[in-house]
Write a structure and sequence with these properties.
Elements: H1 4-15, H2 21-26, E1 36-40, E2 56-61, E3 68-75, H3 82-97, E4 101-107, H4 110-116, E5 120-124, E6 127-132, E7 135-137, H5 148-153, H6 155-164, H7 171-181, H8 187-200, H9 207-213, H10 227-249
Parallel strand pairs: 3-4, 4-7
Antiparallel strand pairs: 1-2, 2-3, 5-6
Length: 250
């Protein structure tokens, strides 16, 4: 089932590709800021018979070297048969666009990250015809943001880091630091990033911790029942009641 946490864990790359910095750094590529990055359709379905959809697909044109694709999958746990889907995604995108494909799996805990690293092999006897090895972004290679000043300088990375580390022991302290770091934001910016976090932390151990820390949240993800949205709807309802009472008293 696709959850809000799952959605946020991959969607953030579309709006803020700078979050890919750990991947580019590990692979010795120029920083994402120096590359042209374009979101492509995530649909990997052929003529029919089975619908397949990658979470996020980005086309990258580096400032140096050849272009490539990044297929991003958010994975909250082990899923049987996922390796087969990932192998298909890589092969299909490679054939469709004629570009090499980097598969990135985003994981919130170490057991899932270890499993997602693969390799997922298609083999007969001792011969491997195909091997799929995702690049994993997880607790071991996404740094915990502990510097309050970094929140203002790199809010996307700070937010993404908090989501990736949401199942760690340090998660409450990380969120507390984030809340303090957001004091330097203007109202609109604070709402924007608070909303990313609230939706991204849904169904995690620290969801309520964050709801207590946040002061105001924007309606960036409408229909999610976030704290700001609830407050807005309650206020709207109260306004409607007051309007009705005024009419009745005339």
């Amino acid at each position: 089932m696709v959850t809000s946490t799952h959605e946020t864990s991959h969607r953030i790359f579309q709006d803020h590709p700078e979050v890919l910095f750990p991947v580019f750094e590990a692979l010795g590529l120029p920083p994402p800021a120096k590359a042209t990055i374009e979101a492509l359709t995530p649909d990997a379905t052929e003529i029919k018979p089975l619908e397949r959809r990658v979470d996020t697909v980005l086309r990258v044109e580096p400032s140096e070297g050849d272009g490539f694709l990044i297929a991003i999958e958010a994975q909250t746990g082990k899923v049987r048969g996922k390796g087969l889907s990932w192998s298909y995604y890589v092969a299909y995108l490679h054939a469709k666009f004629g570009l090499p494909v980097l598969l990135v799996a985003v994981c919130r805990n170490r057991p899932t990250a270890a499993w997602a690293a693969g390799p997922f092999e298609c083999r007969v006897g001792t011969w491997t015809s195909q091997a799929t090895r995702p690049f994993v972004l997880g607790p071991d290679n996404v740094p915990e943001i502990t510097d309050e000043s970094l929140v203002a300088r790199a809010p996307a990375m700070a937010t993404f880091s908090a989501i990736v580390h949401s199942e760690s022991e340090n998660a409450p302290a990380i969120l507390d630091m984030l809340a303090r770091g957001m004091r330097s934001f203007d109202k609109a910016t604070a709402k924007y990033w608070c909303e990313w976090l609230e939706v991204g932390l849904e169904n995690t151990p620290v969801q309520e911790t964050w709801r207590e820390l946040e002061k105001m949240v924007a309606t960036y993800f409408p229909g999610r029942g976030t704290l700001f949205e609830q407050t807005y709807l309650e206020g709207k309802a109260e306004g409607t009641v007051e309007s009705i009472l005024r009419v009745l008293h005339k």
